[in-house]
Amino acid sequence: MAQRETWTSRAGFIFAAVGSAVGLGNIWSFPFQTASNGGAAFLVVYLLAVFLIGFPTMLIEFTIGRRSKQNAVSAFAELGYGDWTFAGAIGVFASFITLAFYSVVGGWVISYIVGSVTGAYLGDAGAYFGSVSSGLVAVGAHAVFIAVTIGIVAFGVADGIERATKFMIPAILVLLVGLAAWASTLPGAGAGYSYYLSPDFSVIASNFADIVPAAMGQAFFTLSLGFGVMIAYASYLGRDDSLPGDSAIIVVLNTIVALLAGFAVFPILAATSGVGDASGGAGTAFIALAGAFGQLPAGQIIGLVFFVVLLFAALSSSISLLEAPTSYVVDSQGMERRTVAIGIGAVAFVLGIAPAYGYVGLFNDLVFNVLLPVAVLFIALFVGWVANREAVDELGRGSSIGEGATTIWLWWVRIVVPIAVIVTLYLGVTSFYT
Ligand code: PFF
Ligand code: NA
Question: Which atom of ligand 1 is nearest to the CA of 222?
């Protein structure tokens, strides 16, 4: 069998992982979620979830991946625990389902790039959203988006994923800083910032049962955890750099992009029709922003830049969603990567026809409230209570953290992560019935 692929450098791995993390979740959901859940107060809860639960969970996936050098499903058998294969399989299934609806939203972004060029959304933003977000146009754009995703993954780990993300991530950072700087000069900037971040702890206090699972779900989703993606990406590490170091860089960059997105979005909204109508989720964010671009002097250009940033963010994530199942089939069946990527992408395309006709929310809820927390719970229990100490010690290989730090992490993974996830699951599931 052919030699398994590896990243060409440490930076290559980091770009790919940041690419997976930075996505629609950062630029399109995070700012609005923050604004509507208590601003800076929500941010505190979210950052706690990211750093206290997300960061150690990323280390679980990196440890499994680098130790086994296998996709998320085969990894468990490779480590000698074949009956835990299901834990990885849940994640890979989640990534496949997510690819289907993520690609539909990616298709919307393509339609908004087209709309920025033609000026089609400048007049009536609501009508434009209606015409591109479901139906045949949505299916067509979804097809284009998934085809590009397949094209990148087919080229392989180094020539496809690494090369694409090495270009897209710096571009996202530079353009987003530019957008935020430009937005800061708008007349309503101050009002935008305060809408975004003004701390309202009473919102948290009165909605605790909704906000905790929302912040936790967002933390896992934004860091691409529970999907087997970070296991697959770490399995392509050919050298032993510091896993905690890499993970810290990834988590911090991901957070910076999310914060920056808010600094770009809210002044733009505040300078135009206001921010009040932008908190309703999915569609309203597109409508509110496109409406704002329609009112600004340079709105068409700014809109184009914004949606290009969003496209890069979405693509660098969707390739990781396709890579998780692809690496499983390539590793376990020895099939050719290109054939597998096309096959899985085609099935995800068909599955995505449902959300392209208006069922994005259903898919989203299944992933967020059920698959994600369940997958994270099992990998945490696996590394915490089942895997032998040799596998656990993979965490510190190539880094300067000592035995003591590894042990603290192990106990954190044994106790704190599972409890946090179970509370999240409980609150998330019960919120269905209230
Ligand atoms: N992290 C991506 C985002 O925030 O948009 C979404 C995502 C990508 C989730 C890849 C999971 C994944 F495996
Ligand atoms: Na991304």
Answer: 4
Residue 175 near residue 308 (C-beta atoms within 8 A): yes
Express each pLDDT in 282-337 by its tens digit. 677 889 899 999 999 899 999 999 999 999 999 999 999 999 999 999 999 999 99
Q: What is the DSSP letter of 3?
A: P
Tally of CA atoms within 13 A in the half-sphere of 354 that contains its CB:
14
The rounded Å distance from CA 221 to ligand 1 centre is 5
pTM: 0.96
Establish how many alpha carbons lie within 13 A of residue 243's alpha carbon, considering only the half-sphere containing its beta carbon: 31
Ligand 1 neighbour 379 (Cβ under 6 A): no
For residue 279, the model assigns a pLDDT of 54
d(CA 179, CA 172): 10
Report DSSP letters for 217-280, one per residue: HHHHHHTT-SSSHHHHHHHT--S---HHHHHHHHHHHHHHHHHHHHHHHHHHHHHTT-STTS-S
ipTM, 2 decimals? Answer: 0.98
Instruction: Give me the domains of the chain, ranges plus CATH numbers.
Output: 10-433 (1.20.1740.10)
Alpha-carbon gap, residue 193 to 183, rounded angstroms: 10
For 184-242, write each residue's pLDDT tens digit: 999 989 999 998 988 888 988 888 888 888 888 889 999 999 999 999 999 999 989 99
What's the CA-to-centroid distance between 13 and ligand 2, angstroms? 14
